[in-house]
């Protein structure tokens, strides 16, 4: 089972102009108090971030891979850069919660050395966990907001002034924290049932990710190569020590996100947990909602009804926020040889009622001939097919409804045809067939935020791009994943040659492997590709500007400090 942590602390947030909770030296002077601090640092990752749409909009939205199809405007600030300013609630809330996590960690890290524990190994684990969680929070903060306020001591009173620290200072602290985490974290969580606690494999994984990201902030090639080396070494350690670290690749892509593998996933390096006992979740009515945000509209179409297999598609209409793949994302896959597409995307829907007779309205909705009125489908027959293929036959005369890639998109843009632009191949990575009822948003699946496949991609990128790197090794690392992804008998066709390995190919491969997994925005930012890739591959995002590699500093924070002019707003806002 997962941690199912319940926050028992009432944190004073930046709503009161204090990045974190006011704590008591008495309350946190013993083992129970430190455990409460550690647990509280985890809570926001599940209650406010991983499982919720806000962080999805900030990490996958506004990239080359996804378009928010909402006409209502919800989420447009992050997903389309439309109206992105310092008063946007998601920007403020993300800032507040991240600083609260930092403050919990600072409070615990200041105290833990002097506090006796009944189990010394548990004490070491808590030290490692707080170091890991602080690094993870600061990685989000510095990447989203830039050179902001770096705090390493508990904030106990209202913040009246704030000073910026350079990005490299954040990276120095993060890498130092991760060394502490590596020195102290166990291979398995303590207690063993607490899946979701940071362990040794997570610390090495985050070190690899942080070091790779740091490359973007270094000016000299020698320093870039240094951190490519740090990233490669950390990622390779995980690859080379899988058995010792209790991780391994699944045999097929489908198994990675198979719901049955969710609660004890061997490929996961770090997981944000959501309890199947809903009352144990910090927000019982809203634990993991990710399963609703990638769904194509299928219910009330061609006789289909919403069910647990196909999921809650209630947001997939022209008025509701929904993550629709761009044509670019779909065309990254060659589904004839790469099974990741069919394993991770849904195209086909089979009739889930006993019988359906085509109506004139449904036929018109799919531009099918009126002469098919009354023709029938039986349970299990193909009813809907939303495909990335180009269908050149008489696609309107088929017994089922077919929407192909040229119906869904006009060139690289989403079609203006409202009959078709809510029908698209739907990402299945967050499917949750164990909902309380069809259409419910109360999901209980854990969220994998770092997994072993990423280590192969990081090590390959570092080896391919650093001066003197081993490009043959980098090619083989990529090919490990591509062999795993191959359609049966097509392994040779999936292998790439060393000459193919450049940054654009690596970003394509990261898109194929990691799409939807809260990483794309960071990838495009750190490689300097955000603005150009969005313009090239996602032209429905018309407001993107070069300064969008940073979010605005929340106005509420600037209004609260006495030196807002000195602290300053980020460029462009």
Automatic annotation (TrEMBL):
Domain SusD-like N-terminal: 28-212
Main location: membrane
Keywords linked to the UniProt accession: Cell outer membrane, Membrane, Signal
InterPro entries: SusD-like_N (IPR033985), SusD_RagB_dom (IPR012944), TPR-like_helical_dom_sf (IPR011990)
Keyword Signal: yes
Record-annotated RagB/SusD domain positions: 292-540
Family to which the UniProt record says this protein belongs: Belongs to the SusD family.
Protein name (record): RagB/SusD domain protein
Organism: Sphingobacterium deserti
Taxonomic path: Bacteria, Pseudomonadati, Bacteroidota, Sphingobacteriia, Sphingobacteriales
